[in-house]
Amino acid sequence: MSKSLARVERALLEAGLSLQIREMPGETRTARQAAEMVGCALDQIVKSIVFSGADSGRIVLFLTAGGNSVQPERASALAGEPLARAEPADVRAQTGFAIGGVAPVGHKSAVPAFLDRRLLDFDLVWAAAGTPRHVFSCPPAELLRITPAELGDFT
Fold it and tell me: What is the pLDDT of residue 31?
């Protein structure tokens, strides 16, 4: 088991969830790929969009429904500073995950996060589990509970 996958599994267990992490037969790097592999609606996929603070350099995570796009101006307002796309090396250094497998939990360091309200429209959502081939599902209210995310309007 990869270190990234193990961190996600540990974070889920520590949060009191005994969710099954599933390995998909193909990649789930994009929301569309994940929805096809899982067999769910595109918006049931939790996309992890990572930005970097233009002033602070800190990583900020936006958990959004698969069909939605993060609006940079709205995201910057929530983060309290201008944002730019994060460099892959910074994402890995601060979260412990490579782009395409960034999970909403199990980060190496504390990462500010915001959750798209659209995800709350579903009974179940699917998120990356630390690799480009592993996912887990949970009710969106539980996802909000176990992450440091705040609800936000950024799409």
Answer: 95
pLDDT confidence of residue 1: 74
pTM: 0.95
Q: How far apart are CA 84 and CA 53, in angstroms?
A: 7
| Residue ranges making up the domain that contains 95 | 3-152
Residue 28's pLDDT band, with cuts at 50, 70 and 90, is very high
Instruction: Tell me how far apart the alpha carbons of residues 66 and 116 are, in angstroms, rounded to a whole number.
Output: 10
Instruction: Write the CATH number for 61.
Output: 3.90.960.10
Cα distances from 132 to residues 13, 29, 34, 80, 145, in angstroms, run 21, 5, 9, 30, 24
Q: What is the pLDDT of residues 93-110, one digit of tens each?
A: 999 999 889 999 999 999
